[in-house]
Amino acid sequence: MTIIRSLLMVLLLAPALSLPAASQTAAVHIANGDRAYASLDGQSALAHYEKAIAADPSSYEAHWKASRSAVDIGSYHADASRRGSLFQSAEQYARRSIALKPNDAEGHFSLARALGKTALAQSTRGRIRYATEIRARALECLRIDPRHAGCLHVMGAWNAEVMRLNSVARMVAKNVLGGRVFGQASWKDAVRYMEASVANEPNRIVHRVDLAEIYLDVKQKDKAVAELEAALRLPVDDVNDRIYKEQAKTALSRIR
Question: What number of helices (H) and strands (E) belong to the chain?
């Protein structure tokens, strides 16, 4: 009887004992992913985050970080099909992260970012379809964390992209295709949000490069030059920072 009782106890406890082990394995993969991310190895970072998800499908951190790395890799991938696949994965990971933890900013930011990348490859009609949710996710992110630099950046870029559409396209978007939020876009908000992203995360190169682009849109060349020069002085700290620096160099040569 003692042996049978012992076996029953092992069987009953096995599921409970396996959960901490799975969580521990996921934590190890997340830590390895973070190290790879810090060393600018996007592919390895994504692989580790995906292994963490496999080990613990309820890991919020693994999901939003997998979304982040998928977007990082996809943003400048030469293969359009692979790029689209990465953005689709990023969207799925982000949606799952929101389902797991709806009141944290990173999930909403990750989804806004993934959708924004997908939208850039769409026609005007396609962009309008994505625009409403991108804005809604960014605003929800800012409701949770008003100083989230990534979401401030998304809102700055959102306003700028809408304002870059010609007036006819904006009118059609607003009145025919259901994109009424397009009527709320302005260059003033594009500048305001992107300046806030730089103020809250001044060492992030992409914020400064995109702010410079908006300054050029609104004919503030001196401010654009200052941001581009600042971007070139900053250290490489992100997977795509070298590309952003090249963009800054190209923009400066074009201005001069």
Answer: 12, 0
Q: What is the mean pLDDT of residues 164-179?
A: 68
Question: Are residues 181 and 175 in contact, defined by beta-carbon separation less than 8 angstroms?
Answer: no
**Phi and psi dihedrals of 218, rounded to 5?**
-100, 15
Domains of the chain are: 41-121 (1.25.40.10)
- Using only C-alpha atoms, the chain has a radius of gyration, in whole angstroms, of 22
What six digits make up the tokens of 160? 């700028």
Contact 216, 158 (CB under 8 A): no
What lies within 8 Å, CB to CB, of 15 at 6+ separation is: none
Residue entry with tokens 């963009």: 247
| Mean pLDDT on 147-157 | 98
What's this model's pTM, rounded to 2 decimal places?
A: 0.87
CB 63 within 8 Å of CB 53: yes
Q: 37 burial class (0-12, 13-18, 19+ CB within 10 angstroms)?
A: buried
Single out the residue of 148, 146, 118 nearest to residue 131, CA to CA: 118
